[in-house]
Design brief:
Layout (H helix, E strand, L loop, with lengths): L2 E6 L11 H20 L3 E7 L24 E5 L10 H8 L3 E7 L1 H14 L3 E10 L5 H6 L4 E2 L1 H9 L1
Helix pairs in contact: 1-5
């Protein structure tokens, strides 16, 4: 089974209302899972929202320093909430032969959820990374988890070491 990890919109421009300790905790989970997957040649994809980006504020649109970006990782830029909409993400998932998509990042109630739905609509198998999604409103995360597929890092470990 080939696994893909989507790390969605972890950019300074979006995270202004999220507490740093919450960001740090999510980054720890995301980086751990990303490294597990890289070690077994699975795919890590960083999704960057560039909607409204101007040259003068391009730095705010970069991936935050708390997220490790490594050489084999792929990047997709988007201008809509669903990372599949008008991007090459679907082609990348198909080209990479990804069977399971683990979604992480910001914002649980917007881009993460819309991308989850976009993956479902395209026939992919998406799951949300437990403790790996963020929102500016803490009560949104449990609501986002409800009625959706979740995966924890110990389960990722078990799958890739099986």
């Amino acid at each position: 089974m080939k696994i893909g990890l989507l790390i969605i919109d972890l950019q300074e421009v979006h995270l202004g209302k999220v507490e740093q300790k919450v960001i740090d905790k999510a980054c720890e989970y995301i980086n751990y899972v990303a490294e597990l997957l890289r070690s077994k040649l699975h795919t890590v994809i960083h999704v960057q929202d560039i909607e409204g980006m101007q040259a003068a504020d391009a730095e705010k649109f970069e991936i935050i320093p708390g997220i490790e970006v490594k050489e084999p990782d792929l990047r997709v830029t988007k201008e809509y909430s669903n990372a599949f909409w008008k991007t090459d993400l679907e082609a990348i998932v198909l080209e990479q032969g990804i069977d399971l998509l683990i979604l992480s990042g910001y914002a649980a109630e917007h881009c993460v959820l819309f991308t989850y739905n976009g993956a479902m609509e395209r026939g992919f198998k998406p799951v949300l990374l437990q403790n790996g999604i963020l929102s500016s409103q803490s009560d949104i995360i449990p609501a986002t988890y409800r009625d959706r597929n979740l995966i924890s890092y110990p389960v990722v470990e078990a799958i890739i070491h099986a």
